[in-house]
Design a protein that fits this description.
- It is a single chain.
- This protein is an alpha/beta fold.
- It contains eight helices and five strands, in the order H-E-H-E-H-E-H-E-H-H-E-H-H.
- A five-stranded parallel β-sheet has the order 3-2-1-4-5, with helices on both faces.
- Helix 2 links the parallel strand 1 and strand 2.
- Helix 2 crosses helix 7 and helix 7 crosses helix 8.
- The longest helix has 16 residues.
- The chain starts with a helix and ends in a 7-residue tail after the last helix.
């Protein structure tokens, strides 16, 4: 066989498409785990970011690492402190509210500007790895009333990234995806089952005890969601 025929019979090399990359804010709870699996379902290569910021317990961090590894995602843990406290999640001398009216005000578990800090960290990480998206499990339907979980805030922050990052200045931008924003907890639970999220690994309780307390906002919202979805909670 001559050289020409060899060249003719060679298969052309197919250039692989670059991965779409997304940074996922992963707390270890139900909503953030579902947001992670949605990102993967949309074809993103996922880079999970979790935080040890002095919260009452480290159990959710353990859950976050297990979920990230189960999903075959990259995982990084960032340590920092908020020494001025300002939240019952940071100050163990302050009581976590029990059985409060969920539609009444902003509870003491609100951590001042927490999502602003988390999203800023995620944006910095996204620029370094060339990610085009950040996924966050924020919800404004079944939630404790935190102002940094609402659509207006997330859109404003995305606009800030357009104005204040290199990617934004170059017209690439970093999109903030909050796919659970307008879903109730029952819908989120059903979605988790469809996506095969390892619900048994998730932890939502504000306390770090062996079993969920059942009376904090997070426990009650989770419990109601599973009950309305007609699914037993495998984490209990």
């Amino acid at each position: 066989m001559n050289r020409k025929s060899k060249i003719k019979n060679q298969k052309p090399k197919v250039r692989k498409k670059p991965y779409k990359r997304a940074v996922v804010l992963l707390s270890g709870g139900l909503d953030s785990a579902v947001a992670l699996y949605l990102a993967k379902d949309k074809g993103y290569k996922t880079y999970c970011l979790s935080f040890d910021y002095g919260q009452r317990h480290k159990k959710e961090i353990v859950s976050a690492e297990k979920i990230a590894r189960k999903s075959a995602s990259m995982w990084r843990l960032i340590h920092f402190e908020l020494p001025w406290k300002g939240s019952s999640l940071l100050d163990k001398r302050a009581a976590v509210p029990k059985n409060r009216r969920l539609d009444k005000g902003i509870p003491s578990t609100y951590v001042p500007a927490r999502n602003i800090i988390f999203l800023s960290m995620a944006a910095s990480y996204a620029e370094v790895i060339g990610a085009e998206a950040i996924f966050i499990g924020a919800n404004q339907i079944d939630f404790s009333g935190y102002p940094d979980c609402r659509k207006g805030f997330l859109r404003a922050f995305e606009k800030a990234l357009e104005e204040g990052t290199k990617q934004g200045a170059e017209g690439k931008g970093i999109r903030i995806h909050a796919p659970l924003l307008n879903k109730d907890k029952a819908q989120i639970v059903k979605l988790a089952r469809r996506l095969k999220v390892p619900l048994e690994l998730t932890w939502s309780c504000y306390q770090g005890k062996p079993r969920a307390c059942g009376v904090c906002d997070s426990c009650r919202l989770r419990s109601r969601g599973f009950a309305q979805a007609g699914i037993s909670d495998p984490a209990l």
